[in-house]
Amino acid sequence: MEVMTHASTFLLPPSPPSGSNGHPLTYALVVLNQRLPRFAPLLWSHARLRVCADGGANRIYDEMPRLFPDQDPLDVRNRYKPDVIKGDMDSIRDDVKEFYSNLEVKIVDEADDQDTTDLHKCVAFICDNRPTLDKSNQLCILVAGALGGRFDHEVGNINVLYRFSNTRIVLLSDDCLIYLLPRTHSHEIFVLKSVEGPHCGLIPAGAPSASTTTTGLKWNLDDTAMSFGGLISTSNIALEEKITVLSDSDLLWTISIRHPNKKI
Ligand SMILES: Nc1ncnc2c1ncn2[C@@H]1O[C@H](COP(=O)(O)OP(=O)(O)OP(=O)(O)O)[C@@H](O)[C@H]1O
Ligand SMILES: Cc1ncc(C[n+]2csc(CCO)c2C)c(N)n1
């Protein structure tokens, strides 16, 4: 079985290409209609394509200038200009729409589709435009503001991980990140201790697992069954720099993101 490796390098400042990086990723960013995480500018700087999901455009317009209080808000808005705004357009404000259309941002109204979420629409758009991104690199979609807030939205955001299970997608909030570990691969997760951990979890959200085996955790699983209503792994601790996971079921991996001023 092929090994899939994972590392949250998007939480570190961008570094010049070293040549030794085995499988570099090309990042795209989706900004949702939730308070921007404090590291939104960092995610933005990693991304080659920046897409706002409907009211996510209000967040960039309103909140990016607040993250740079010493700078002219107009300069900040011109600098953090999305490539695309997409959704059913029931949340973007008129003034925000006008501001970005004057900057010639592509605005795609899909109000006709009331069966998929704005995040789904944005991820589908990015996947359709994958060929125009770097062809030699694998695509990884970062989603800012995906957790916390309304529970139906949170679950809808998690469902997008399953709907697009062949694409790397990372859901982020200020406090944690989540991605899917497809059962088609064994997984090696490299924990970047300066920015993430130690709290972590492995969740059999889509279907129970009859057998999951891990290494590197405080409470490892050894050919263990997991299911909702039975055992799921929450409040686990990442002990090693490398965590390995092998499962007969798709699992969600989640790990805490460190706050600069907090003890853990
Ligand atoms: N409270 C929230 N919690 C988590 N995610 C949210 C929340 N509010 C919005 N989102 C995310 O931001 C996207 C855009 O939300 P927006 O408020 O612009 O439109 P919406 O009409 O509420 O969402 P949708 O059209 O997808 O049902 C949503 O698709 C969802 O992914
Ligand atoms: C069973 C079912 N439940 C809810 C919706 C409504 N819905 C789902 S996604 C979405 C957002 C569109 O931007 C809306 C309104 C539906 N269509 N089907």
UniProtKB/TrEMBL annotation:
<dbReference type="InterPro" id="IPR007373">
    <property type="entry name" value="Thiamin_PyroPKinase_B1-bd"/>
</dbReference>
<dbReference type="GO" id="GO:0030975">
    <property type="term" value="F:thiamine binding"/>
</dbReference>
<dbReference type="Pfam" id="PF04265">
    <property type="entry name" value="TPK_B1_binding"/>
</dbReference>
<keyword id="KW-0963">Cytoplasm</keyword>
<dbReference type="GO" id="GO:0016301">
    <property type="term" value="F:kinase activity"/>
</dbReference>
<comment type="pathway">
    <text>Cofactor biosynthesis; thiamine diphosphate biosynthesis; thiamine diphosphate from thiamine: step 1/1.</text>
</comment>
<feature type="domain" description="Thiamin pyrophosphokinase thiamin-binding">
    <location>
        <begin position="185"/>
        <end position="251"/>
    </location>
</feature>
<dbReference type="InterPro" id="IPR036371">
    <property type="entry name" value="TPK_B1-bd_sf"/>
</dbReference>
<dbReference type="Pfam" id="PF04263">
    <property type="entry name" value="TPK_catalytic"/>
</dbReference>
<comment type="function">
    <text>Catalyzes the phosphorylation of thiamine to thiamine pyrophosphate (TPP). TPP is an active cofactor for enzymes involved in glycolysis and energy production. Plant leaves require high levels of TPP for photosynthesis and carbohydrate metabolism.</text>
</comment>
<protein>
    <recommendedName>
        <fullName>Thiamine pyrophosphokinase</fullName>
        <ecNumber>2.7.6.2</ecNumber>
    </recommendedName>
</protein>
<keyword id="KW-0067">ATP-binding</keyword>
<dbReference type="GO" id="GO:0005524">
    <property type="term" value="F:ATP binding"/>
</dbReference>
<dbReference type="GO" id="GO:0006772">
    <property type="term" value="P:thiamine metabolic process"/>
</dbReference>
<dbReference type="InterPro" id="IPR036759">
    <property type="entry name" value="TPK_catalytic_sf"/>
</dbReference>
<dbReference type="InterPro" id="IPR006282">
    <property type="entry name" value="Thi_PPkinase"/>
</dbReference>
<dbReference type="GO" id="GO:0005829">
    <property type="term" value="C:cytosol"/>
</dbReference>
<keyword id="KW-0808">Transferase</keyword>
<dbReference type="InterPro" id="IPR016966">
    <property type="entry name" value="Thiamin_pyrophosphokinase_euk"/>
</dbReference>
<keyword id="KW-0418">Kinase</keyword>
<dbReference type="InterPro" id="IPR007371">
    <property type="entry name" value="TPK_catalytic"/>
</dbReference>
<comment type="similarity">
    <text>Belongs to the thiamine pyrophosphokinase family.</text>
</comment>
<keyword id="KW-0547">Nucleotide-binding</keyword>
<dbReference type="GO" id="GO:0009229">
    <property type="term" value="P:thiamine diphosphate biosynthetic process"/>
</dbReference>
<dbReference type="GO" id="GO:0004788">
    <property type="term" value="F:thiamine diphosphokinase activity"/>
</dbReference>
